[in-house]
Automatic annotation (TrEMBL):
The keyword NADP does not apply. This is Flagellar basal-body rod protein FlgF. InterPro entries: Flagellar_FlgE/F/G, Flg_bb/hook_C_dom, FlgE/F/G-like, LlgE_F_G-like_D1. The basal body constitutes a major portion of the flagellar organelle and consists of five rings (E,L,P,S, and M) mounted on a central rod. The rod consists of about 26 subunits of FlgG in the distal portion, and FlgB, FlgC and FlgF are thought to build up the proximal portion of the rod with about 6 subunits each. Residues 198-242 form the Flagellar basal-body/hook protein C-terminal domain. PANTHER family: FLAGELLAR BASAL-BODY ROD PROTEIN FLGF, FLAGELLAR PROTEIN. NCBIfam families: FlgEFG_subfam, PRK12640.1.
Length: 247
């Protein structure tokens, strides 16, 4: 009976971990450029005295799903989306540099261009700052141009170019701040081939329908494990009654 309870308990732990990850994905289904988390289950041998066949189930984070989300047209000049592969560089809360594909930009009161989550957008010369302007535009190659306040449309000035990079596949990991970094800690070099599309945003790559189906499937798996534990308890009660009768 103990074996049956143990197997059911480890299964319940696995389902709970998977459900937590799936719930996080669902919560970010409308977050700009969010990348879904992926995990799988692996067996882990339990060391120490006891039966050598003891194993536990461990949930292993295999990293984010970096496939692009759908492009949504917004018509807003400060919205940009990466076309194909590539990343924007931002200044992270810890002062270092990190990567994101979130392009819902805004200009704060001091002229610093920031992403929707408040991180300064990096240009090839550092954080991008713009003086007072009447129009701000982003070129397909990442150039940042403005029409200075009080000037005509022919007075457009190129200020900076967004720092755009394209790291090797499989080299990125997501930090606790939601930003991405290379596993070796090095910032990839600027890549002139990365293109941006103004007036668009990249949506989350979480498929709501698939996530909802997985949530229901995981709930059923959890219920099955609970039933197995109840069955083990019922079997133990019956065994105890039989032992008493035999005495």
């Amino acid at each position: 009976m103990d074996n049956m309870l143990y197997v059911s308990m480890t299964g319940m732990n696995r389902v709970m971990d998977a459900q937590a990850g799936n719930a996080q994905n669902l919560a970010n289904v409308s977050t700009t450029a969010f990348k879904a988390s992926l995990d799988n289950a692996i067996s882990q041998k339990i060391d120490g005295p006891g039966i050598a066949s003891r194993f536990n189930v461990q949930t292993r984070d295999i990293g984010p799903d970096l496939s692009p989300g759908p492009l949504v047209s917004t018509g807003r000049n400060l919205d940009i989306a990466i076309q194909g592969e590539g990343w924007l560089v931002v200044q992270a809360p810890d002062g270092g540099e990190a990567l994101t594909r979130r392009g819902d930009l805004q200009v704060d009161a001091t002229g610093i261009v920031r992403t929707g989550d408040g991180n300064p957008l990096m240009g090839e010369g550092g954080p991008i700052a713009v003086p007072p302007y009447s129009q701000l535009t982003f070129g397909g190659d990442g150039t940042v141009s403005i029409v200075p306040l009080g000037q005509g449309p022919n007075a457009q000035v190129v200020l900076e170019r967004i720092m755009l990079v394209k790291p090797e596949n499989g080299t990125l990991e997501r930090g606790t701040d939601g930003l991405f970094r290379a596993r070796d800690g090095q910032l990839p070099p600027a890549d002139a081939d990365v293109r941006v599309l103004s007036g668009h945003l990249e949506g989350s790559n979480v498929n709501m329908a698939e996530a909802m189906v997985e949530m229901i499937d995981l709930a059923r798996q959890f219920e099955m494990q609970v039933k197995m534990m109840r069955l083990a308890n019922d079997n133990a009660d019956v065994a105890a009654q039989l032992t008493t009768m035999g005495g």
